[in-house]
Every structure is written in structure tokens, then in C-alpha cells.
Design a protein that fits this description.
With about 750 residues, this protein is an alpha+beta fold. It is built from 19 helices and 33 strands. Among the domains are: about 170 residues, Nucleotidyltransferase, domain 5 (2-Layer Sandwich), CATH 3.30.420; about 110 residues, Substrate Binding Domain Of DNAk, Chain A, domain 1 (Sandwich); about 70 residues, Substrate Binding Domain Of Dnak, Chain:A, Domain 2; about 150 residues, no CATH class. The C terminus is likely disordered.
Length: about 750
């Protein structure tokens, strides 16, 4: 069994291995570069997929996915901000960028007959990795199960996790940790440029989709990352588009010609070839003889053919080059970088060949030598092969810091940027939080990555993780959140409840509640709640919900993603119909809004005040029943149950709470909040309730008997006064923190 190195690139993927005579691209002597392109022949099924050169050469047919690496681990909003809709138009073509859930993204593959399927970016990437694996096994004549896989050093946790998911789907075990691309290149360059032990080196990797900068020091076997910076949406693809726009303008061809999917890829492929030629020549021709006129469907005349000079090209891409130099400058300015000691700059990635970029780098570090002794298109793969063979030690850092969003909504910085990984597992604890409701067994934590440049801190999109199976506690119980980074720069965390040593791990994909099965589970629970809350008022929709729940549970149990999506659509459709019906009822004046407001204000009081204050003294069965009834009340409010049901539900909560040993105590506290109970009597109720609680806490049976007797006498007095008060024709209404009893006349205390 062989172990290989894979450079998983935006535009091309390369496989390498260490042979007897050193690392070489597979196969030895005539290494193959695999275009990172996938073609789905049908509506997106996995059974008929073409990958690599054959897919890249397709001019028509649709469902060809290129540059998917740009989408790995990104949200829908991030993808739009970074311009990915230029590659995957949301509303046209056979490959469309779509929103999944609240924030995440997918690729919708539209078939010839109108059918479609939505895939995650990592599912598409898995096909590229499968092709790399097949290619290696064919060339080497042996099975390949393990590989060192490279990623941009500036990849965050979600993008790294998406890469690991893609490798898993491809049947590859990632050997060690994901390897940062600049570090891999440094391994390949080290013997060629005679790096001295401890000498700092700058690696600049400008590939098809990303720009990566890393400063390292090492001796060939042990390395240290000193600084990392980059941009995940700045690559050769952007230069291709800039060159294409220039040529279309000069040829007086409307940019709308690229709206046709086949035209778009023909034009971009021609632009890429012209760009590559302009790195060697002072001018190049961009020709596309087979363009289709989008309006007529016939071949466009005259064919596009235009010569462009290097000077014009460099003027057009100047903003991109300037951006790369700004990032390099920012990296060199970091505290742990010995800028004056850098004498070698390793140029990696196809875009690093551009003369304008090289001139800019030379001006930025005039005392350093620009090194391209190793093919910039192969160096990362060669370094990955070396890592697979020798496993050098690389002390790595995370370019991102991490903060926990506390209960106040403000991020609290926990792990600073440029921390060495792995961070100490228990060295970053101490972010306190509290449970949000009684009986809470799942705790959600929002972790926010951030970068800092000088005095400026930039917070990125938050990541939601979940601790499950925690012991049920009262609302407001302290939860300590600790987070750390593992050796793969993956964010880990745990929650400790009420000061206990036991930690409950924080887990969850970046998609969080927007992943299809989680979405399905949420919709299923919502449907079940609506069924139980009020069967009578839904009519035929109850049957649809019951059927949808059965299908959803079956799909979830079997892990059938396709059926899960279908079940989710059915459930959401039924739930939307119910919501529309409820909206109509509300517009007509039903249900009783006063009852609804009363429940909304009292339910959290019962949960966060009464239950929390006397949690340890209430028997667990009674506690669980009260929590269940409070939550049922909330569901009834959401489903617009009739006022009579709301009042009955509220009474059921009180009946549950006011029974048992501590029932009189809870009733006393409840009564003390009611208008209609004089202030002096309310104070006595609270004081005597506190005495009963203290006697319970101390285990004093005699003191408990005396305190209970006093409290019961006061309760009897209170109930008699309330009975007289209610007999005065009072009107019940809801206020923010208590039930207010209004009467037509005036009264004294």
C-alpha cells in the first residue's frame, strides 16, 4: 500500500510520491496535472461522473463544476461577497449557487429534463480526490488508502473541515494533519535553495483561487511557522476574468455573450491560455471561434479574435497585484517576523509567474532572491509527498484568533491570533455563561474567528457548536465554556456545568442547524408539536403532518439524504400552510390576544424564577412535568390555540408546581407578585417562603414544620383577600412582569 501527497488545487490537482530517487509527480517522469473539474452527466447522481481532463474539455452539455474550492466551508453570503456568483450564477445555467438553510450554500445541478439535485461543495470535491486516488493507484499498481492533503494556510476551521469531509467521502484517510500549502512548498524547495538552519524564508503561493503568505524558519526536518496571512478569494481565476473583460471591451463584444454557459467556459479557457502566454511573451492572442449568439442560438459571427499586449494586461490586473503586495507587507510587519533576515522568497502557484507580480515582490524585498528552482505548479504536491514519507515536524500557528459570544451578545476573546497549535487543552477556559431555560440538556455556543492587523480587529462569521447530553439544571445555572485548537487547527471545545470537572464536548459541522438532517429534525419536532398542540383546528393538514413526520423519521434513521430533502420540503410546505391559516385567524381577531400575552409573560416567570429558585427541592418527576407543561404552553401560543386552551394550560402549570412539599412555598411566591395582595402581606409571604426554603436546605424537620404552619396560615389569609378582591368586578390583563388586576373603582391597601 502506497502513501501519496495531494495538492488539491482550485484549478488543478497534482499527485506526488517519494520514489527511490526522490519526490516526483505521479507518474514518474511524465507527471500528470488533473484539472479540478467535475462533470455530472445526469441531474447530479454519483453514478455517472466524469472528472479531470475529459470534464475540462467539455464545451457543451452543462453540469460542469469548476473552481469549487472557492466554496469550501464558505457561507452563502461570503460566496456572494467574494464574487462566486460569476462562476455559478444563482438563476441561470446548469450549475447554480443556492442558499441552503439560513446561511449555508450548495450547488444546484439542473438536468436536461428540469430535474435537479443540490450538492455540498465538499461532495463535489470528493470526486476530484477520487480521481487523484484512481490515478495514483493506476500509475503505481498498488492500493492507496492514505494521503497527505494540502490546504491554504489561511483556510479557517470550516474550510478545513470541509476538506476532511471530502477526503472521507473519497475513501482517503488523511495522514497526519492537513498540510498548509506554503509549508509543503518549503519542504520541496529546501534542498534546491540551500536553506540554512534557522534561516527565515518567505513563501508566497498565488494559485488559481487563493493567495497565501507564510514566513517559516527551519532546517529541513523541523520547521516553525512565524506568520501567516492571505486572501481566500484572490487567485488566477480573477485574473482570467479581468483579461476576458479587457478583450471583450476592445473587441466591442457585449459581456452578455458570457451569460451563455458554454460561451463562458470557452472564453475563460481562452483567457487562461492567453494569460499564461503573457508571462513569457509581450503579447498574446485570445481567440474563440465557436461562440454561440445567446439570442439566436447560432454560431456568432465574426468569431472573437483579439491580440492583447502584456502592458495592457498588467494595467488591467494592477489592483489584484497591488492587493497581493499589501498582504505580503502586512505579513512581514507581524511581530515574530525578522524582515531583514529574509534572503529567499519561494514563489509558488501558477500566478506567481506573472512578471508584474515578480517586479512588485522584488521591490518589496530588494535584498532577497526570488526562487523558482522548483516548478511552482508541482512544488506543493512534491512537499506533500515528502511529508507523507518523512513526516517532518512543523510547529504551526493559527492565523485566526477565536472569541466566545457571551450571553450579552459581545464576543469575548479567548484564543489570540497567531497562537501555536495545538493550544493547551485546558489553558483557555474561563468564559462563563448560564443555561437559558430549565431542564436544558443542549447548550449552543457561538465561536467567532477574528484577525488583528495593528490596532484593528476584524471579526468573521461565527461558528455554532453544540454540547449535548448535559444534566438537566435550573435556568441560570453557570456553564463554563473552554475552547482550544487541535494540531490540525480545528476548533474544539467543552462545557462544564455548575463547576463540575466533567466536560461535555462541543461538536457540530459548520452548517450547524442548517445541515439537511438537522433542518429535517427541527421541522419534524415543530410538526409533532403542532399535531399535539391542537389537532382539532388543523383539519386535513394534520394527516399531512403525520405522514410527513413518519417519512422524515424514516429518512433520518436510514441516513437517506435525498429522501430527507424531499421530506423536509413536504413538512415545510405543510407548516407554511398552517402558518398562513393561523395568520388569517389572527387577522380575523382570533385567538384571544389577552390570553396569549398572559401566557407569554408568565411562562418564563414560572421557569426562570420559581423553578430556578427551588430547583434542588422539587422532586425530579414534578420538575420534569412542570417543564413539559411550560413548553407545551409555548407551542400552544405558536400554534394560536384558543384562549380557553391557553388558560387551561396555564392552570395546569400552576397545579403541577403548587403540589408536593414545596408547593405552598411556590404558591406563596406567586401570590406575592399579584396586584390584589397588599404589600405588607406580599412581604410576609416572601419572608415565610424563604424560612421554609432554609429549613429544607438545613434538613431541620422541626423548623420546617413551624415555618410551613406559619406559611399556610398566611396563604389562607391571602386567598381570602384575593377572593374578596376578585369579587369587585376586576379585569385581568397582562403587563411585562406580572398579572395586573384592574377594577372600575378605587381601593385602599
Amino acid at each position: 500500500m502506497a502513501r501519496i501527497g495531494i495538492d488539491l488545487g482550485t484549478t488543478n490537482t497534482v499527485v506526488a510520491m517519494v520514489y527511490d530517487d526522490g519526490p516526483q509527480v505521479v507518474p514518474r517522469g511524465r507527471g500528470r496535472i488533473i484539472p479540478s473539474v467535475v462533470h455530472f452527466r445526469d441531474e447530479g447522481g454519483d453514478g455517472d461522473v466524469v472528472t479531470g481532463e475529459e470534464a475540462d474539455n467539455l464545451e457543451t452539455g452543462g453540469r460542469v463544476v469548476r473552481s469549487v474550492k472557492r466554496l469550501m466551508g464558505r457561507t452563502h453570503d461570503e460566496a456572494l461577497k467574494e464574487g462566486s456568483e460569476k462562476y455559478f450564477p444563482p438563476h441561470s445555467g446548469s450549475v447554480r449557487l443556492v442558499r441552503r438553510g439560513r446561511a449555508d450554500l450548495g450547488l444546484r445541478l439542473v438536468g436536461r429534463n428540469g430535474g435537479s439535485r443540490v450538492l455540498w461543495p465538499h461532495e463535489v470535491t470528493a470526486h476530484v480526490l477520487r480521481e487523484a486516488r484512481r490515478h495514483a493507484e493506476s500509475a503505481l499498481g498498488t492500493r492507496v488508502d492514505e494521503a497527505v492533503v494540502t490546504v491554504p494556510a489561511y483556510f479557517g476551521g470550516p474550510s478545513r473541515q470541509a476538506t476532511l469531509d471530502a477526503a472521507r467521502l473519497a475513501g482517503l484517510e488523511v495522514f497526519g494533519d492537513l498540510l498548509d500549502e506554503p509549508s509543503a512548498a518549503a519542504l520541496a524547495f529546501a534542498p534546491a535553495v540551500n536553506l540554512e538552519p534557522g534561516e527565515p524564508v518567505l513563501v508566497v503561493d498565488w494559485g488559481g483561487g487563493t493567495f497565501d503568505v507564510t514566513v517559516l524558519t527551519g532546517d529541513g526536518t523541523e520547521w516553525l511557522q512565524n506568520a501567516i496571512d492571505g486572501d481566500l478569494s484572490l487567485g488566477g481565476d480573477d485574473l482570467d476574468r479581468a483579461l476576458l473583460a479587457l478583450v471583450l471591451q476592445k473587441a466591442n463584444v457585449p459581456e452578455s455573450v458570457a451569460d451563455d454557459e458554454a460561451n463562458r467556459w470557452l472564453l475563460l479557457r481562452a483567457a487562461r491560455k492567453a494569460k499564461e502566454l503573457l508571462s513569457r511573451e509581450t503579447q498574446a492572442s485570445l481567440a474563440c471561434p465557436n461562440l454561440i449568439d445567446p439570442e439566436t442560438g447560432s454560431k456568432r459571427r465574426p468569431p472573437l479574435a483579439r491580440t492583447v499586449s502584456r502592458a495592457d494586461f498588467e494595467a488591467e490586473i494592477a489592483p489584484f497585484v497591488d492587493r497581493t503586495l499589501e498582504i505580503v507587507e502586512r505579513c512581514l510587519a507581524k511581530p515574530d517576523v525578522d524582515r531583514q533576515g529574509i534572503r529567499k522568497v519561494l514563489l509558488v502557484g501558477g500566478s506567481s509567474r506573472i512578471p508584474a507580480f515578480r517586479r512588485g515582490m522584488a521591490a518589496l524585498l530588494p535584498g532577497a532572491r526570488l526562487c523558482d528552482a522548483v516548478d511552482p505548479m508541482q512544488s506543493v504536491a512534491l512537499g506533500a509527498a515528502i511529508a507523507a514519507h518523512d513526516r517532518p515536524r512543523i510547529a504551526r500557528i493559527s492565523p485566526f484568533g477565536y472569541a466566545v459570544v457571551g450571553d450579552g451578545g459581545e464576543p469575548e476573546e479567548v484564543i489570540p491570533p497567531d497562537s501555536e497549535v495545538p493550544t493547551a487543552e485546558h489553558g483557555h477556559a474561563g468564559v462563563p455563561a448560564t443555561t437559558r431555560y430549565a431542564g436544558q440538556t443542549v447548550y449552543r455556543v457561538t465561536l467567532v474567528p477574528f484577525t488583528r492587523h495593528g490596532a484593528t480587529t476584524h471579526f468573521h462569521r461565527g461558528q455554532r457548536l453544540f454540547a449535548r447530553g448535559m444534566p438537566a439544571t435550573a435556568a441560570g445555572t453557570r456553564v463554563d465554556v473552554e475552547i482550544w485548537l487541535d494540531s490540525d487547527k480545528t476548533l474544539r471545545g467543552a462545557c462544564h456545568v455548575d463547576g463540575r470537572a466533567e466536560g461535555f464536548p462541543l461538536e457540530g459541522r459548520e452548517e450547524g442547524p442548517d445541515e439537511v438532517f438537522t433542518n429535517l429534525n427541527d421541522a419534524t419536532l415543530d410538526a409533532e408539536a403542532r399535531i399535539e398542540a391542537n389537532r382539532r383546528s388543523e383539519g386535513g393538514l394534520v394527516a399531512a403532518l403525520i405522514s410527513g413526520v413518519d417519512r422524515a423519521r424514516s429518512a433520518e434513521a436510514q441516513g437517506d439524504r435525498l429522501e430527507a430533502r424531499r421530506s423536509l420540503e413536504r413538512l415545510e410546505d405543510a407548516l407554511e400552510q398552517i402558518q398562513a391559516r393561523r395568520h388569517s385567524q389572527l387577522e380575523a381577531g382570533a385567538p384571544d390576544e389577552m390570553a396569549r400575552r398572559r401566557v407569554l409573560e408568565w411562562a418564563p416567570v414560572f421557569e426562570t424564577e420559581l423553578l430556578a429558585a427551588f430547583w434542588e427541592h422539587i422532586p425530579p418527576p414534578q420538575r420534569d412535568e412542570a417543564i413539559a407543561r411550560i413548553r407545551a404552553l409555548r407551542v400552544m401560543v405558536q400554534t394560536a390555540a384558543p384562549a380557553r386552551d391557553l388558560y387551561r394550560g396555564l392552570d395546569a402549570v400552576k397545579e403541577t408546581l403548587f403540589e408536593g412539599v414545596v408547593g405552598p412555598v411556590l404558591k406563596a411566591v406567586y401570590y406575592s407578585w399579584l396586584i390584589g395582595v397588599p404589600g405588607r402581606l406580599a412581604d410576609r409571604l416572601r419572608e415565610e417562603a424563604a424560612e421554609v426554603r432554609e429549613a429544607l436546605r438545613q434538613g431541620d424537620p422541626e423548623g420546617l414544620a413551624r415555618a410551613r404552619a406559619d406559611l399556610e396560615a398566611t396563604l389562607a389569609e391571602t386567598e381570602a383577600m384575593l377572593k374578596r378582591y376578585w369579587a369587585t368586578d376586576a379585569v385581568v390583563d397582562a403587563a411585562p412582569d406580572l398579572v395586573v388586576l384592574r377594577q372600575s373603582g378605587t381601593r385602599g391597601d
